[in-house]
């Protein structure tokens, strides 16, 4: 269980203040507009970023923590590639080398044929899969991913979300996402943020309404359900 009792960060004219948030095992999707605070929320949790940490009380498994690195893996929106091989990159942040796990992850993320390719030569989607493999290699109890679906084609969006869902059966996975229908296909819970504030937390995908999304994104949206899937339409279209 990851608990955010209090988190307050700020920079320039932006201020984020949240509290009383709990994330157990499962895939927890955070939705919200650009500049709504989703990335600041994640960077505030790890205690590192461009923001100023004003107040922070993060707890894991009931105990208060200062440094989250021992139990939490974080994939930001963008990280620079390195001139090292894919197989070296995957194991770069792992505490203990595990070549069997590395080889398994190369197959899982369909990177085995690229294992000796340099990371900087990968396409955007290939690099995103290598980043996810690196996160998986760390084997931490909590995984946070910021806009993980960006740069992936439709096939790999679903492959990565399926991996996240499988991990969420035994871990806490928190993901900032922009693709609302894709998020609703896999999410166990949904949290919405706008203007640095949480406007909904821990609700089921089926509880998300047109009014809630319209309020979150400040644009008229309609939610419809068909064959167990959510569809989102802009009312002006």
UniProtKB/TrEMBL annotation:
InterPro entries: ABC_transporter-like_ATP-bd, Metal_Ion_Import_ABC, P-loop_NTPase. Residues 1-220 form the ABC transporter domain. PROSITE patterns: ABC_TRANSPORTER_2. Coiled coil: none annotated. This is ABC transporter ATP-binding protein. Belongs to the ABC transporter superfamily. One of its GO terms (molecular function) is ATP hydrolysis activity. It comes from Candidatus Salinicoccus stercoripullorum. Keywords: ATP-binding, Nucleotide-binding, Transport. Gene3D superfamilies: P-loop containing nucleotide triphosphate hydrolases (3.40.50.300). The keyword Ribosomal protein does not apply.
């Amino acid at each position: 269980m990851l608990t955010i009792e209090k988190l307050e960060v700020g920079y320039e004219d932006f201020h984020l203040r949240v509290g009383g948030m709990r994330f157990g095992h499962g895939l927890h999707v955070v939705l919200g507009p650009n500049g709504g605070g989703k990335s600041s929320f994640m960077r505030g949790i790890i205690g590192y970023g461009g923001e100023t940490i004003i107040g922070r009380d993060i707890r894991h498994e009931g105990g208060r923590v200062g440094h989250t690195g021992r139990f939490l893996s974080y994939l930001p929106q963008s990280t620079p590639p390195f001139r090292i091989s894919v197989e070296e990159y995957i194991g770069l942040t792992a505490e203990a080398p595990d070549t069997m796990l590395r080889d398994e992850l190369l197959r899982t993320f369909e990177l085995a044929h690229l294992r000796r390719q340099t990371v900087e030569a990968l396409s955007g989607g290939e690099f995103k899969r290598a980043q996810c493999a690196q996160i998986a290699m760390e084997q931490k109890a909590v995984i946070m991913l910021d806009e993980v679906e960006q740069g992936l084609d439709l096939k790999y969006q679903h492959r990565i979300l399926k991996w996240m869902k499988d991990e969420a059966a035994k871990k806490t996975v928190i993901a900032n996402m922009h693709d609302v229908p894709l998020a609703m296909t896999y999410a166990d819970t949904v949290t919405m943020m706008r203007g640095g504030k949480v406007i909904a937390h821990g609700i089921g995908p089926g509880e998300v309404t047109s009014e809630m999304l319209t309020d979150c994104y400040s644009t008229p949206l309609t939610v419809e359900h068909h064959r167990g899937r959510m569809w989102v339409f802009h009312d002006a279209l």
